[in-house]
Specification:
elongated, four-stranded mixed beta sheet, four-stranded antiparallel beta sheet, Immunoglobulin-like, 15 strands, single chain
Length: 219
């Protein structure tokens, strides 16, 4: 017996495939239309300091009297803040021992990260302690070229070396130290002389002075 072939199924399959492709294109178009342009931007920069580490500097972003964002610099002084509404802003940079840095008229645009020129923060002379001293021979004559070291004296008596330098032609030296209360040990060495030491208590942002006398080394 002759049985008719079922060719009518193929047009149905082709129609379904065509509809699926069309729906996919429509969905893709709708997704593209739903994508909204970026509404926020960002800002980045780097801070250099006169002395010490550039890490831990507080960066505040202001619009008028309102702080809208903040960040802290990483080890090399870099910072970046995102998610800021477009507009014009001002920046302040703060860290104890350094002068406050300021920048105004910083423009942020949607979808962009504004890259700033490098900041430079010098030492704030009014917020640090100065340890200044002189080195003498027993005769009272100044000792030029003597090696001076300063170390932090811990609670258990151990020493942490902070800095060193050589006395000037007038036998003087100077160190900049944090103003927080602490005890420091000054050590002076010179050829043919006994080592001299003196402890100094630092308790504020002020000038502290010390005088050391070197005596001839025992033969």
């Amino acid at each position: 017996m002759f049985r008719p072939q079922t060719f009518y199924r193929r047009p149905a399959v082709l129609l379904a495939a065509t509809l699926a492709v069309a729906l996919g294109l429509l969905n893709a178009g709708a997704s593209a239309q739903r994508r909204t342009p970026p509404t926020t931007g960002g800002i980045k920069g780097r801070v250099k300091v006169e002395k010490g580490s550039a890490a831990g500097i507080g960066v505040s972003i202001w619009q008028g009297e309102r702080e809208v964002a903040n960040a802290t610099t990483e080890g090399k002084g870099a910072f970046e803040v995102r998610g800021i509404a477009p507009g014009t802003y001002a920046l302040t940079l703060r860290k104890p021992g350094l002068r406050v840095g300021r920048m105004s008229e910083v423009e942020i645009r949607a979808g962009k990260v504004t890259s700033l020129k490098d900041f430079y923060l010098p030492i704030d002379e009014g917020s640090i302690a100065f340890l200044r001293g002189s080195v003498f021979y027993p005769s009272g004559r100044s000792v030029a070229g003597a090696r001076v070291e300063v170390a932090l004296v811990a609670a258990d008596g151990t020493l942490k070396r902070i800095d060193s330098r050589v006395t000037t032609e007038y036998g003087t030296f100077s160190f900049r130290l944090p103003p927080e209360p602490a005890r420091y040990r000054v050590t002076v060495k010179a050829g043919g002389m006994e080592t001299a030491t003196s402890d100094v208590e630092i308790d504020s942002a002020a000038i502290f002075r010390v005088a050391l006398t070197l005596t001839p080394a025992a033969k």
